[in-house]
């Protein structure tokens, strides 16, 4: 049975209107990866927002466009076909239900393993009936290029912070055992939303949360919907830009930097007339990796803000929580 639409509305919340008064409102940090001063701006963006936009990223537009067109084809196919690629436990097609703990969103999605192995028996790929291998190649090309960019960003960050080695963060994504995932989200337009919008309500496409991994790299079509939470608790809408990437700091990077970088709370609101398609690479460490503040970063007597845990433990705890729970709280030292 279909969950009722009321389930998807957000509670009333404070909104930052960045169109009214551009001088007073923060703008999303812009990182030009082709410029030599980007390292400094990157660190600043991770400290202040945990979020930034990347241009001159080096990911070929043709990889992005091919994946977008295949994904659009998939999501416009009949539900019965899409369901053959589900349920998303752990990988596959999902519809409205997010996780196992009662979270819902106005969204359909494909959750894929970001490990680039050939896996033709995977039911997720076999629904691409004409040519399942082709979809997998398109995903592989895209993920390989985006992962490379993510690693470059992590290396610039480590460099600028003067850490023990440039690859302290990026080696976790490069590890063969890296627990990284790739997700394509499709937010169908919701025409009924118009009458609710007039009453100031918002329909939630993807509920507020922080990402548990190290780093997330997002690309969407030109439909708005993504919002980030600012320090004052208000929500700021992120102007979409289909030729750029948006990057956010995950909880694990917050821990490894002992809280210097902030994992940003974000969400997606649905649109009444336009569909939104987004694809996100979540770069995570190997399951056995101990996630703790890096020694080379601690100053003087600085103490760790977190209890020790492995990525396996953190992931398990995140899987068993609600989206909006502050998942790091369990691991904070009091
Ligand atoms: C997620 O999949 O974790 C998201 O935050 C969704 C973001 C988006 O679809 O733009």
Summarize it.
Helix 1 (38-48) packs across helix 5 and helix 2 (61-75) packs across helix 5. Helix content is 27%, strand content 22%.
Topology of helices and strands:
Elements: E1 15-16, E2 30-32, H1 38-48, E3 51-55, H2 61-75, H3 79-83, E4 92-98, E5 103-113, H4 123-126, H5 132-160, H6 170-174, E6 181-187, H7 193-197, E7 204-209, E8 215-220, E9 226-229, E10 235-237, E11 245-249, H8 251-256, E12 266-269, E13 276-283, E14 290-291, E15 309-310, H9 311-319
Parallel strand pairs: 1-10, 2-3
Antiparallel strand pairs: 3-11, 4-5, 5-6, 6-13, 7-12, 8-11, 8-13, 9-10, 9-12, 14-15
2-oxoglutaric acid binds next to strand 6, strand 8, strand 12 and strand 13.
Q: Which parts are unreliable, with pLDDT below 50 for 5 consecutive residues or more?
A: none
**Biggest β-sheet: count, sense, barrel?**
8 strands, mixed
Number of helical elements: 9
Measured as a percent range, the helix fraction is: 25-40%
Strand tally is 15
Question: Could you characterize what this model shows?
Answer:
The chain is 27% helix and 22% strand. It has 334 residues and is of the alpha+beta class. The chain has an 8-stranded mixed beta sheet with strand order 2-3-11-8-13-6-5-4. It has a 5-stranded mixed beta sheet with strand order 1-10-9-12-7, with no helix packed on it. Helix 1 crosses helix 5 and helix 2 crosses helix 5. The longest helix is centred in the middle third of the chain and has 29 residues. It is globular. It starts with 14 loop residues before the first strand and ends in a 15-residue tail after the last helix. The relative contact order is 0.17. The site of 2-oxoglutaric acid has 11 residues, from strand 6, strand 8, strand 12 and strand 13.
